[in-house]
Amino acid sequence: MHNFPEGLAIGAGYTVSEHLGLGLAVIIALHNIPEGMAMGGPMKAANIDNSRILLWSSLAGVPMGIGALVGTLLGSVSPSMLSLALGAAAGAMLYITFDELLPGAHDLDQGHAPTFGAVAGAVLGVLLILTLPNLN
């Protein structure tokens, strides 16, 4: 559900600058490592063949590739379309976070761990934003 907006962000980011697109791709790739483990772990526990696990995990990334293509195409039309593509990607990811992930995390834990995790993730994101441009 969120792979298309991730791809949209990467494609539009590359339209802005190669550095922004690469930075987004690296950050999203890091995010996809635990996502892949979350997909593969239960399938491995269910004794599904490794080749099928790889197939299904790879297919989950197809919407990201489509989103990157759409983001690049929209971003190259005009600055307004580029802004629209970046804003749509950000809005979709925020929607998924606030409507699906955080309420689900709070249902699993009655304490403050989900809130602390969200704050820690936001702080880490800001630190990445502040440090990535300096990697030129």
Question: Explain this structure to me?
Answer:
With 136 residues, this protein is mostly helical. The chain has one domain. 85% of the residues lie in helices and 0% in strands. Helix 1 runs antiparallel to helix 5 (79-108). It is globular and about 45 Å long. It starts with a helix and ends in a 5-residue tail after the last helix.
Report the total helices: 6
Strand coverage percent: under 5%
Round the Cα radius of gyration to an integer and report it: 17 Å
Identify low-pLDDT runs. none
Structural class: mainly alpha
Question: Percent range for helical residues?
Answer: over 70%
* Pattern of helices and strands: HHHHHH
Q: In the residues, how many domains can be counted?
A: 1
Alpha-carbon distance between the two ends: 32 Å
What best-fitting shape do the alpha-carbon axes yield? globular
Number of extended strands = 0
Residue-averaged pLDDT, rounded?
85
The major pleated sheet works out as: none
